Amino acid sequence: MRIVELETFILRRPDVIEAGDSSQDLFLVELRTDDGLTGLGEADSSPEVMRAIVEAPYSHEVCRGLREVVVGRDPADREAVWRDMYAATLFYGRGGAAMQAMSAIDLALWDLLGKAAAQPVHRLLGGPALDRLRAYSSLLMPHDPAALAGLLGEQRALGFSAVKLGWGGLGRSVAADERLVAAARDAAGPEMDVMIDMGSHGWQRDFAAVEAFAAMLVRYGIFWLEEPFHPDDYASYARLRVPGLRIATGEEECAEWGFETLLEGGGIDVIQPDPARAGGLTRCRRIAELAADHGVALAPHAWSSPVVRAAAVHLSFASPNALIQEYSRHPTPLSATIRSTIEARHGWLDPPAEPGLGVSLDREAAARYRVG
Q: Domain span at residue 114?
């Protein structure tokens, strides 16, 4: 079996919403083999940058595009392909955008391998390590506290016992943030766990302000605080200790050494690699194992589309330290371009049974949003 075609897709919704989140566009890679199998992968990044990295012409041995590395290869040589992609992008990569583009191809390779073996990917990763997995509803934080009662009531009605609220209305002021947190806690009720994701909205705050914000979250019984510091501020992550509150981070990391630094700092309770950013499943399973060695729980980041969600679910089901799985409930028309067999029911996920990742591209739907 050989890869004979690599096709890239940039999908973009026509409206740019105020929140400016990463569900506004998608970069997908579809691999096709000589026996007709296809594999689908995603990079959660700037789509045009991803395409440039895939399509770049040969410059020199450690400065090449990814297409020429992948086409003609046997998908079964996945580890070797990963090493060769890393070597080909060494001059401009070693992390960041190059690693994100590699992630899309790596996910497509795992999808192909699962289909070829007639096995779900989590079994190829050594799973299932869990009988079932709790999912949390992941949403943007509204700007108006009054909107939270209806929003969280909808999640409870769907069976979710945990919800994450992030970005959106957060970060305007400490007082405004507390009003939102208080309203979320009240709307969630005693049976639902609530996570708060500051994202870039909190990165301008100094350490003392973050520490005070975290202490406020403890008073409201918040399950975890996500990304309280800039991703380069490893020292603050190592320093912060808040009894009664988990600290979660990792979605911005793209290279294994970044995760090593976070874990060795000792301040992280939950690590959140994104399979569409952090080297695909090939590297994310190593990150999951490294987290387990440090006694840290795994909760993969999976916001942008059903492709990365599927990859994250397979990773979680192969990881004994998986705590809970992000399940985006943010409405975006681009999700309708992906057919997926993975669905949370009453707030829980079962081990996927479909061969591969369990996703496929609806080309007719994708054509309405395809650009470039």
A: 3-118
